[in-house]
Design a protein that fits this description.
Distance between the termini of chain A: 41 Å
Strand content of chain A: 5-15%
Order of helices and strands of chain B: HHHHHH
CATH architecture of chain B: Up-down Bundle
Strand order of the largest sheet of chain A: 2-1-3-4-5
Strand content of chain B: under 5%
CATH architecture of one domain in chain A: 3-Layer(aba) Sandwich
Largest sheet of chain B: none
CATH superfamily of chain B: HPT domain
Structural class of chain B: mainly alpha
Largest sheet of chain A: 5 strands, parallel
Main location (chain A): nucleus
Number of strands of chain B: 0
Number of helices of chain B: 6
CATH class of one domain in chain A: Alpha Beta
Keywords (chain A): Cytokinin signaling pathway, Nucleus, Phosphoprotein, Transcription, Transcription regulation, Two-component regulatory system
Family (chain A): Belongs to the ARR family. Type-A subfamily.
Structural class of chain A: alpha/beta
GO biological process, one term (chain A): regulation of DNA-templated transcription
Oligomer: heterodimer
Largest interface: A-B, 26 and 29 residues
Radius of gyration of chain B: 18 Å
Protein name (chain A): Response regulatory domain-containing protein
């Protein structure tokens, strides 16, 4: 399948210098958060991947919107049975990319039946309110100003943990403004994905000096809703 | 042994602080250092190495685009500057990033001369940073080889 070659070959050649690609991927833990990161900049891909791994996420990093759609099985109209089992808990994408922008990718994801419930976060180096509004209106979960920091990713991680854990179905705990996330908690975790996914490189928890917050740490109050968070951000350096 | 390590650590700390003070690096470099640990001791060095490769490639292609005065592809140059600004920002290469800001302005008004000056400056800045960081990483290596730990450096 071109998908496998497209994603893993790309990553192998990028990762070899860093040594990340040499790490063995452990068996996929269905409780672990799997993030699809999309950015045309190699430097940014490396950084975001590291940021996500350090917060205990499994990461698949691709260099374009097209590759992302390919990975998700959304690149053609026929739905593929295998991809029904693909577990992606978060998609984080750069806004400014040649070919397909992050906004266009966001729209395609939200139009799909299989992935419309997956939170999509947009990253951009430019603090343009109209851009931010447009993305949020289209259903983006959050908007991060580049350069992305550890604190930004930890924050994302906090509101994800609640949704993915099967045990965490205690609805009253979910604040009102995040109630739309409760639909994610209702999704039965899929069976382990087919081998092609596990071959896509990710690292185990153990080798990372993990600073992942325990679930109890995440107390999301209404003031932390995406829009408020965005407003509270100081303007990026431009 | 201890004093050698302490001396090297002190040198490292002073040198790193000076890079911030002289404006070569900004807070994002600090953020990158946070992502490095015993398991990935070369993370920062490898990311900046990719960044410098990026610089070299982009500068070359922008140089080609700016070559003939009668036929400058400002769109291409703008794209290059955008990419350079992005990656310099992501690694904390402050001076490089700042040149990119001026560079973009020259591009916007299609000022070829201005672009050429900025191109020269960005070339100078990335090479300068490359040398400085090489010295920093060498110090790091010496500390590790002497059995010491890399100090956490707090930049106010």
């Amino acid at each position: 399948m071109p998908l496998d070659g497209g994603v893993s070959c790309l990553r192998r050649s990028e990762m070899i210098g860093i040594g990340i690609g040499e790490l063995e991927s452990p068996p996929l833990d269905s409780d672990q958060v799997h993030v699809l990161a999309v950015d045309d900049s190699l430097v940014d891909r490396i950084v975001i991947e590291r940021l996500l791994r350090i917060t205990s996420c499994k990461v698949t990093a691709v260099d374009s919107g097209w590759r992302a759609l390919e990975f998700l099985g959304l690149d053609d109209d026929k739905s593929s049975v295998e991809f029904d089992r693909l577990k992606v808990d978060l998609i984080i994408t750069d806004y400014c990319m040649p070919g397909m922008t992050g906004y266009e990718l966001l729209k395609k994801i939200k139009e799909s039946t299989s992935f419309r419930e997956v939170p999509v976060v947009i990253m951009s180096s430019e603090n343009v309110l109209t851009r931010i509004d447009r993305c949020l209106e289209e259903g983006a979960e959050d908007f991060l100003l580049k350069p992305v920091k550890l604190a930004d990713v930890k924050r994302l991680r906090t509101y994800l943990t609640r949704d993915v854990k099967v045990s965490d179905r205690n609805k009253p705990k979910v604040p009102e403004d995040l109630s739309r996330f409760s639909s994610l908690a209702m999704v039965t975790p899929p069976p382990p994905p087919p081998p092609s996914i596990t071959s896509v490189k990710s690292s185990s928890l153990e080798e990372i000096v993990s600073s992942s917050p325990p679930p109890s740490e995440s107390s999301i109050s209404p003031v932390d809703s995406p829009i408020r968070r965005m407003e509270m951000r100081s303007p990026g350096l431009d | 042994m201890n004093t050698v390590v302490a001396q090297l650590q002190r040198q490292f700390q002073d040198y790193l602080v000076s890079l911030y003070q002289q404006g070569f690096l900004d807070n994002q470099f600090t953020e990158l250092r946070k992502l490095q640990d015993e398991g990935t001791p070369d993370f920062v060095a490898e990311v900046v190495s990719l960044f410098f490769d990026d610089c070299s490639k982009l500068i070359n292609s922008m140089s080609r685009s700016l070559e003939r005065p009668e036929n400058v592809d400002f769109k291409q140059v703008d794209s290059g500057v955008h990419q350079l600004k992005g990656s310099s920002s992501s690694v904390g290469a402050r001076r490089v990033k700042n040149v990119c800001i001026s560079f973009k302005e020259c591009c916007d008004v299609q000022n070829r001369e201005g672009c050429l000056r900025c191109l020269q400056q960005v070339d100078y800045e990335y090479k300068m940073l490359k040398t400085k960081l090489q010295d920093l990483f060498n110090l790091e290596q010496q500390i590790v080889q002497a059995g010491g730990a890399i100090p956490q450096v707090n930049i106010n």
